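Reference record:
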Amino acid sequence: MWQYSIQQSGRDFEPVLTWSADAQAALAQVKTRDDVDLLSWNPSTDVSEIYEQYSLEELVAQIDQTAYARLLEKMAQTVESSGQVITPSLQRQWYLVGYLASLEHQALINTAAALLSLTVLNLKTPPMALAKVTAKQQRGLTDQARCWLMAAQVTDLQLLATTKPLQKLLAHLLDQDQRLDTCCVSGQSAGWQLANDANWLSQIATPQFVLPQLERPSAFRLLRAAYLERQLG
């Protein structure tokens, strides 16, 4: 079982908290201090990791003027043109998808699928029921969005040059019966992992958030940034 601690930033694996399978004490420090990093250690395999935390300034600089930033703009134009409201929570999730995709050099089709699935869930689900959205529903919407973009042979250039593919797909997924939302493909889904990690990171200040919900290593490096995004509104 993984254990967690923290260390002073820049050190070579020097834990300053007692190791614990409950990461809450370490998280409390990582979220609010800019001089510590998260440590993880698996006693059964002796595998360990140092998760240096990115600052918001670093993330914004990395994504600025990239295809990911352009895609975020197109997603905002798509939602606004449909007459829907972009909530602060959805906006945070979009930013987190962009940060994760940029750090991992994700394909734009995976990034677009993640953005669409999060958007559909936020617009289609009553606010009080959002916490009960299942991973299978999120996975289904992400996989369906990716499959549709591939089947329609939508290129990266089209995703960045026009909102038409995003508009058409958003309308379809919003209108389809919710029972179909859980239909997904087998195998690994990078798009779903982006959506999943952005969704949970956006909830980092809530009691529902626990580290094992995160799928990709890069997400563990965005804990402080995700918390600051939430504090900023």
User: Anything to note?
Assistant: DSSP finds ten helices and three strands in the chain. The CA atoms of residues 122 and 129 lie 10 Å apart.
